[in-house]
Amino acid sequence: FSQFNKTKSLLNPSLISNQNNDYHIHLQRRSQWSRVTVPFNTLALSFIAKKLYKDVSLGATFLNDIAGDSHFSTNGLNLAVANSFNTKENSLAIALQTALYQRSIDFGGLIFLEEEEISNTNFTFFDIGVGISNYRKIDRNSSLLVGMSAYHLNTPNQSLIGSNEVLLQPKYILHSAYNKTITSKIKIAPTFYLSSQKQDRELIIGSGVSYKATNFVDLKSGLYVRMNDAIFVSFGLQKENLEVLVSYDINTSSLSNASNSMGGFEFSVNYGWSIVKEQEEI
Q1: Where are the alpha helices (DSSP H) in the chain?
Q2: Is residue 94 a contact partner of residue 132, using CB atoms and an 8 Å limit?
Q3: Distance between CA 81 and CA 56 in Å, rounded?
Q4: Which residues does the chain have with pLDDT short of 50?
Q5: How many CB atoms lie within 10 A of CB 33?
């Protein structure tokens, strides 16, 4: 996802304890490479309960991903539990995430130059991830969030031919976001994201901007760069507890000639709410 900070289970499971409302529902969908091949489509649906018991938060995310001509699909559910340690100005959270995924592939639409021996076109695997994050309120107008996470710590097998040597390598993520109130109407959120998985690296830098249009509506936008790959912009609005964002990637990599610089379209919908607990009369 280009809106990488929206589906918290894919960025850092400890972030489920970092939200304004007690409960949170999130829907996110991305479609990309329609100019190059059969579109790659990704869907995530999440539910989060903050501090469900004392300082313990719970989260669940359903993920559906279908890629290209082979319809290489990944479907699964991940569950996260996070514990936070809070003071007036600071909140430190740690989390454990477990997941069960099912992957399948269809070779009917593919052509091979040589005969391939593929016996494992449908398999299931278990996955383990952890995360830690720290939110600190610097002053009344600014705050800083920093986090680290790690996924696929159990290196699950991914082979389509039954080999024990094809493993999903651990993925490590470092991220931060600085929130600053510029005026009574304008807020900015410079953001940094770095992921590493074996020889692969991904670096994203950019900033979101929020403008208070009315007492009930905030207009949101953002400009980000995924180094050596794409520039993406986002637009949306937030009305009370509902936020809707749309983003689009402009491809800048060597694939831009084939894609006409068109990358991926993505949208997210977030809704949060809190339950006011009645105090017992004395």
Answers
A1: 8-11, 256-259
A2: yes
A3: 7
A4: none
A5: 20
